[in-house]
Design a protein that fits this description.
This protein has 199 residues and is α/β, with parallel strands linked by helices. The strands form four sheets. It has a six-stranded mixed β-sheet. The chain has a three-stranded mixed β-sheet with strand order 5-6-10. It has a two-stranded parallel sheet with strand order 1-2. It is globular, with a radius of gyration of 15 Å. The model has no long low-confidence stretch (mean pLDDT 93).
């Protein structure tokens, strides 16, 4: 199930799943989300707006319930941020709190463009059930101004270098998430989605 709360990358995620031959549905129906084999939380845009849209449809509870019952859950881009407790982008808004930690603005540095848009290498931090199929020196497509700061660094499955070493993927038990867009990252990105589908 691809969770529908109006996210801009919803259809590119659905198109990638269709390309891979995966049976998927775009839905905001809790029963369909909770009965799905896998759940994807897409996202682009602002943290506060996304949480407002999720909560207005009761989907914040659906995502938490899916995670708690052990359904494999994949957050993509803003979908990664939403899994945390808070974001500097919208300080007054609580995130889903599935992971402890905050989301912070990428620090400014000389000649560093923010938002970070483009292809960057992902650097594995540990064995990952969804990233291990892409091999060494894999490049993924990013569009973001904020990055995650998990309290527990052991959940980080990959970093990238962009002025600083930024955590850009997490994995703990049944919950996975990436800062980059696997659905827009060519063959390597599709490999990640395929690994998630086949969990």
């Amino acid at each position: 199930a691809v969770i529908d709360y109006g996210a801009g990358n919803l259809h590119s995620v659905k198109n990638a799943l269709d390309f891979l031959g995966a049976e998927s549905t775009v839905t905001d129906d809790e029963a369909k989300i909770l009965s799905a084999d896998k759940v994807i939380l897409p996202g682009v845009g602002a943290f506060g707006d996304a949480m407002k849209n999720l909560c207005a449809r009761g989907l914040d509870k659906s995502v938490r319930r899916a995670a708690e019952k052990g359904t494999p859950l994949l957050g993509v881009c803003l979908g990664l941020h939403l899994l945390f407790e808070s974001s500097e982008e919208s300080p007054e808004v609580n995130g889903l709190g599935i992971f402890k930690g905050a989301v912070r603005r990428i620090p400014k540095a000389d000649k560093l463009k923010i938002p970070h848009i483009g292809w960057n290498e992902i650097i594995p931090a540990k064995h990952s059930r969804i990233l291990s199929g892409v091999g060494e020196k894999a490049y993924m497509y990013f569009v973001h101004s904020y990055y995650i700061c998990p309290e527990d660094e052991s959940i980080v499955s990959a970093y990238t270098d962009y002025g600083n070493r930024l955590p850009i993927a997490v994995e703990k038990e049944n919950v996975f998430a990436t800062q980059f867009h696997p659905e827009k990252s060519g063959t390597a990105g599709l490999e990640i989605l395929k690994s998630f589908i086949n969990l």
